[in-house]
């Protein structure tokens, strides 16, 4: 055998052995599939477009403007933030309250230091409404108060097809109780 061929065989053998050694040293792991449903749910949350997020198109332009002014003025006066969202579906959620809470947290409604946000979500096709409060807000606006506002101010207007009137009355009542 020629010397060049021997060197080539030696080189290939050493190269093969070094690859084999590396393969033995690395640990193999079985691929696993983990599904995090909370991320799936949060990915269904739309991006915010303002204090009024009328994805369900239940308000007119003038109603959105008027309600935005009320919420903006209240935010400037108190640093408390209220966001109103209308949607056509809460899927993959089953509970509008959980959806409203996740939406408020994802969007960062209210200030982080005071956790003083309030998120109102209306799903007209689902015939559901939910109000989620930040931990600072719920010290004043308890679940009982929010439920009472929904039942006494918002739902009666909704039953007459007056979505804007119901939300406006509910917002004004919540602002009054939050002072």
TrEMBL record:
Protein's UniProt keywords contain Signal: yes
Keyword Signal: yes
TPM domain boundaries: 52-175
Entry keyword set: Signal
A Pfam family this chain is assigned to: TPM_phosphatase
Signal peptide location: 1-23
Name of the protein: TPM domain-containing protein
Annotated source species: Winogradskyella marina
Lineage summary: Bacteria, Pseudomonadati, Bacteroidota, Flavobacteriia, Flavobacteriales
């Amino acid at each position: 055998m020629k010397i060049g061929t021997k060197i080539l065989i030696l080189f290939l053998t050493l190269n093969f052995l070094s690859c084999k050694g590396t393969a033995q040293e690395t640990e193999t792991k079985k691929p696993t599939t983990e599904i995090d449903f909370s991320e799936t749910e949060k990915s269904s949350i739309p991006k915010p477009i303002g204090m009024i997020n009328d994805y369900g198109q239940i308000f007119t332009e003038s109603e959105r403007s008027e309600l935005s002014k009320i919420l903006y003025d209240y935010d400037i006066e108190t640093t408390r933030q209220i966001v109103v969202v209308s949607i056509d579906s809460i899927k993959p959620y089953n509970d509008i309250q959980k959806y409203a809470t996740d939406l408020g947290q994802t969007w960062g409604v209210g200030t982080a230091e005071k956790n003083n946000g309030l998120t109102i979500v209306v799903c007209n096709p689902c015939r559901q409404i939910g109000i989620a409060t930040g931990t600072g807000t719920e010290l004043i606006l308890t679940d009982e108060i929010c439920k009472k506002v929904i039942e006494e101010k918002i739902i009666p207007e909704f039953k007459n097809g007056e979505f804007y009137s119901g939300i406006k009355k509910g917002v004004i009542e919540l602002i009054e109780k939050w002072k």
